[in-house]
TrEMBL record, chains A, B:
Lineage: Bacteria, Pseudomonadati, Pseudomonadota, Alphaproteobacteria, Hyphomicrobiales
Peptidase M24 domain ranges (all copies): 168-376
Domain Creatinase N-terminal: 16-160
Domain of life (superkingdom): Bacteria
Native species: Rhizobium giardinii
UniProt-recorded name of the protein: Ectoine hydrolase
């Protein structure tokens, strides 16, 4: 194996572990099974596209975390995680997609062997990577353990970003700027949508300023016309048409840290509906940014935005943003804070959000969004992309 | 909304539903909750990047399936699924990533309202998109239901491909050929790996012969040198080096149908270890292909390949292939058949596999693979990429 490549100092990993253990103590959990690849990365540095098989990072009562995963991925763990090799525990390949044995059967036996079988064990109950079958296996094979739902326990520890994390996000911001610049440069009537996507990937992957682009957790979204009322349709190979608006929901990514940013392009003469959506969004964005400061709550940003929308006669019933940072597919959100009424989480310096002001109306969609960093006194937009509806001929 | 865009005939969707119901009957299941986006797509046509929130297709005892998902994705369902609009059932946005309510709470109430609360209900227990919390919610809110594990029930119905599916896979094959041609054309010492990835994405996304490229379910894997002993590390922005081998594990994708194919490139004079791996792989591939014919079993391909490897002194302890077809992240495999000893599934005409012959040795990796279609009498390689170690000065 070649040398270990850590993205953060060992001190930073130690602080993360300590923060996590403090919260485990608070929840009276002795041991934590972390299934979320973003959390696995944040705790240990582990980075690989191996989350399609069962794997986990275990935070035991004392000492280093334990990486648990498929045998062929152990080398990847040795290469990317700061852990000592004895704490990288592989399982045999005949556990993969078997109907007879489950990787969690084996994890249970490991935990039992180490004397952890009767502990209070935290699990991420509502995580993509912790299936109903995984839980059933643990419950069956660790009958004396008490399981505690710790969904998002680690995610919450990630909310305030360190200087190095912010540095990576600034690189991601430069990348998303380049992606939007490429769109503005290349988009035209008659261009097949898949060819425009190729341009977006090109800018995203080559990166900027010596910082290469990593794969964003979501593929580019760029629905046009009436399809843009459906925000999560992906592209096709039909040509871009005159008289249609298209929004671009994309993110730059560097070292797995994301900065999402959306803009909307109209080919031809924009309809009044697009101009109205632009006015409402821009005014609302400013109002939301004014409310984005330490001491205020997440919901204050949403309420400020929704109040402006209401004056424009627009009702938005979906949340208007979420925490961002390190992530893996299928979502670049942190799945903790939401910018929506009722979320009273206090805004603190170092928190980062995608202020997702998208409007999905009956027969169109409109997105001009910002990724923001809460500073000591107010807010900073991480990327600098002209904040307007882009109109081309 | 613009017009409905179906990728298959209504007859084909009806046949798929009938096949699924037949298997449900066999398992004595009255109603099936399908969480896997590939299965949702195969049953209804639904296609969107919305699997980061809870969603499902319900196969009720009679009539059309029901799409269940986030409110903002209902338009996407109307646009891509053949279902009548009354069978597209959205949930409110305050269920999204809430700590107070779970989308499955609401699904349970819908099922109860329709009189399905006491049925035998199949669920995909070991699916990424069916979390432990989702199951706990259903169990809690449908106390009179009996739940039956139906993991991969639908996946198995997908094993034999229809003519239209094979047509889409042939387009995907043309795309993966173009991706490998691009690599052969562009790769050189000193090129940053992220720039090479940009070239791969460009070929993948623009597509060929009028068929645009869709996003593959896995990002390009291209580890070099000793890192290639870790098969699932993704790229970085360091330059390609002379004296190193790199394998490329990539897939073409069209209309969500995948054809994966791997090749290996050596920059400089290949070491004896690479030449030996090439000989063993090519000889083993031929042996495996000879065993790939109707009437034989999945394991026969693996045994033929492993026998050749053994003569070359190589032990491969991971499976050597899996079913392929329609898929979404994080995996382009179908998660049914495995080419490995013990899998006695009979090979039938229309089945498609990635014959994944990869060797991950202590300090190198080597992959020359084929995606194959079982024909009426033997086997066909779907893509045509020179089957050799590519050497560039």
């Amino acid at each position: 194996m070649s040398e270990l490549q850590l993205k953060f100092s060992r001190e930073e990993y130690a602080q993360r572990l300590e923060k996590t253990r403090r919260e485990m103590e608070h929840k009276e959990v002795d041991l934590l099974i972390v299934s979320d690849p973003s959390n696995m990365n944040w705790l240990t540095g582990y980075d690989g596209w191996s989350f399609y098989v069962h794997q986990a990072v275990i935070v035991p009562p004392n000492g280093e975390p334990i990486w648990f995963g498929r045998g062929m991925d152990a080398n990847g763990a040795k290469h990317t995680a700061y852990l000592r090799h004895e704490n990288i525990v592989p399982y045999a390949d005949n556990y993969v997609q078997s109907t007879e044995r489950h990787p969690m059967d084996y994890l249970a036996s490991i935990l039992a062997d180490r004397g952890f079988g009767s502990l209070r064990i935290g699990v991420e109950m509502d995580n993509y990577w912790f299936s109903a079958a995984a839980f059933a296996s643990l419950v069956k094979h660790l009958p004396n353990a008490k399981f505690v739902d710790c969904t998002a326990l680690v995610n919450w520890q990630r909310a305030i970003k360190s200087p190095t994390e912010i540095k990576y996000m600034r690189s991601a911001a430069r990348i998303v700027e380049a992606m939007h610049a490429r769109i503005a440069d290349k988009i035209e009537v008659g261009m097949r949508k898949c060819d425009l996507v190729a341009e977006i990937y090109d800018a995203a992957t080559r990166g900027v300023d010596g910082a290469g682009g990593d794969y964003p957790a979501i593929v580019p979204m760029l629905p046009s016309g009436a399809e843009a009322s459906a925000p999560h349709l992906t592209w096709d190979d039909r040509p871009m048409r005159s008289g249609e608006g298209t929004f671009f929901e994309i993110a730059g990514c560097h070292n797995r840290y994301h900065v999402p940013l959306s803009r909307t392009v109209f080919l031809g003469k924009p309809t009044q509906a697009f101009l109205d959506a632009e006015s409402a969004t821009l005014e609302g964005l400013e109002a939301g940014l004014d409310a984005a400061k330490p001491g205020n709550a997440c919901e204050d940003i949403a309420k400020a935005y929704f109040a402006v929308l209401a004056r424009h006669g627009i009702v938005k019933d979906s949340r208007t943003g979420y925490g961002i940072g390190v992530s893996y597919p299928p979502d670049w959100g942190e799945r903790t804070m939401s910018l929506r009424p009722g979320d009273r989480t206090e805004l603190c310096p170092g928190m980062t959000f995608h202020f997702m002001t998208g409007l999905w109306l009956e027969d169109m969609g409109f997105e001009i969004t910002e990724s923001i960093l809460i500073t000591d006194t107010s807010v900073e937009c991480l990327a600098n992309v002209p904040r307007k509806l882009l109109v081309k001929d």
